[in-house]
TrEMBL record:
This is Uncharacterized protein. It comes from the Bacteria. The lineage of its organism: Bacteria, Bacillati, Bacillota, Clostridia, Eubacteriales. It comes from Clostridium chromiireducens.
Length: 86
């Protein structure tokens, strides 16, 4: 996987116990907008990166007719979603 570290717009839901489930995200590259629907959440971890607590999600989705695995991060303090690796 390649590190891209780009902020994305995310649609997610929160369970009663506080767990987050990302559903789909929108990313803009070279004035093109792409919506990616998450097929499966492979793993979820809580980590500390540069002093910030972040939820890390390893997910899969169909992008350009190919199933790809990627990593999304949710920065708890800044309330931002980041497409970290793809």
């Amino acid at each position: 996987m390649k590190v891209v570290s780009k902020e994305v717009e995310m649609i997610a839901y929160f369970k009663k116990d506080g767990r987050i489930n990302p559903i789909r995200f929108r990313i803009e590259e070279e004035n093109k907008v792409q919506v990616v629907k998450i097929l499966k959440i492979i793993s979820t971890d809580l980590e500390k990166l540069c002093g910030n607590k972040m939820w890390s999600f390893t997910c899969s989705a169909i992008i350009g007719e190919i199933e790809k695995i990627f990593e999304l991060k949710y920065d708890i303090e800044r309330c931002k979603w980041i497409l970290f690796k793809i």
